[in-house]
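User:
I would dearly like some help making sense of a protein record. Take your time, and here it is.
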Amino acid sequence: MRRFAFLFLMIAPAFAAGWTHYDNARFGVGLDIPPGFVNGVDAPDNGDGLTFHSANGTAELLVWGSNLVDQSFAGDGASRVESAKADGWNVTYERSSPMGWHVFSGSKKGVVLYEKSIASCNGTQSLAFRITYPEEELQAYNDIVARLALSLKAGAASSCS
């Protein structure tokens, strides 16, 4: 057991190297940002999130929060899947939990999509990220997507009463 702990302590900093962290003050959404991903545009006036792009421009990462005004968290997740399908995405995986998370993924024209959302603010808000990247880079993005999924967290939100 000590050997495993020692190895983990040795590789953990390498796994974290180059990653940054984004926290959104309005919705409290927090997400680790992969090395090389940059935000090249100003934040939207409403403060709902940011868009990041990979250094080579082939991948896009969106992170945002939203108020659930017209539907439940489960309904919001289902609506996002239906919207993705209407946009031509072949959704091949979808899971959700009564614990307040929803995940789906799919592909379209050689691009992979992965989206995860979590409920926040007593179920009145959704915090989410979506990443798209070339299908030929699937193996390279497996660890990145896993880290993103684990890092999505709800923090203090100025818009949660």
In short: The first helix runs from residue 2 to 16. Strands lie at 20-23, 29-33, 49-53, 60-67, 90-97, 101-108, 111-120, 125-134, 153-154. The first strand starts at residue 20 and ends at 23. Helices lie at 2-16, 73-86, 138-151.
